[in-house]
């Protein structure tokens, strides 16, 4: 139980216990028992015969019927001050001889103020509990929405992390750009989805958990290729062979070109009459325009159908713009399998 609920609970118990302490006993009276507004009038009223109602009225007394229950309000000697239940407005309590009143037991059901206290106390206790439970359920729903979107974009997140997290000269991973990418993903994908479902209030409580889930998913080994392992410290020639291995694993006849005379293509791959030229860039920083220009020229030189730049790093905005205008694909090496499938589907080379 949350700490904020405890004071409400104690207040309810206290309010409920105090009326219970003061709860009067219930009595039933014998038929035609005389009762008076003053205890000193009881001895004379008890000696009056039936039918002397005028004499009773003079003494401010009356005879009580044998029906109903009477609540004890006080006592004066051997006279009990009782009030008829249910109480009527303007009806006074009367003194009756204690010998004529038979206890009916303690109050079995709460009435009057006690009911009001119990209802109000129950509301005070249940409202925080229901509010807490409702918010917890909404946070759970929001968490499921976020994790579902992370799963949906898992492959793209893995590739972006591998593009943006690069070791510096001392072998330490630089994660600043990747953290900014996670925040951008949250801002443009997760939070709008929560707001659309009226769950935006849950984000501050979930943010740390969701970012940790994104990091865990992005660090998973990508599915598909299990050939030559990529390592950031491999040399550019080894990286070219790594990319060629990935294409061969996808069914391409891929070969690397001799260093120094490649005319802008590091890998040439053929599959079902489709020719692909690839420029491979093993960088620590974002790849710029040069790679796009080189592979565009290689496409003309080798009479290729498709040109792509493959890198372990990200691409500059200028390179992306130039690639769009020259129909050059900019890829991460983990995207080669999916890229190969798209080409096979488009050109019918499967």
UniProtKB/TrEMBL annotation:
Pfam family, one: Mrr_cat
Top-level taxonomic group: Bacteria
GO molecular function: DNA binding; restriction endodeoxyribonuclease activity
Keyword Transport: no
Record GO biological process: DNA restriction-modification system
Keywords, in A-Z order: Endonuclease, Hydrolase, Nuclease
UniProt protein name: Restriction endonuclease
Organism: Komagataeibacter rhaeticus
